[in-house]
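Quick sanity check, YqaA family protein:
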Amino acid sequence: MPLDFASLGLMAGAAFVAATLLPAQSEAVFVGLLAAKSVDPTLLFIVASIANTAGSALNWWLGRLIATDGVERLPARLRPDPARFAKAQGWFARFGWPSLLFAWLPIGGDPLTFVAGSLNYPLLRFILLVFIGKAARYALLWAGWAAA
């Protein structure tokens, strides 16, 4: 199968943005590229998982900025919604590190990664846990597509 850098770039961009606090989804791009068969599925899976984790690492870093500099230092459009932020803080306080395995969830997952940064959760452990959860989600999508 030829190496399609455009498809991989599209997947990386969609996965990265989808993991940030911006509203976006990468699942349709992932399944669409699987269906198009324009790129090796294993490589697509790796790119999606890494890029999605990188987007969450950006959230972690923004959370660290809030912890050290305060929310008012962030641009207005990057400031967290207070209700979602409080909900994510509650999740993290209640469930701790295992909750990071669910950072892929469409509602609550992104603010949760932001909260982990604001609470100074260790970055390497954060990346490992988030990667496991996000890779598992893409693996399930891939398996579902293959079974269809």
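Posting the structure with no commentary besides this: The chain has six helices and no strands.
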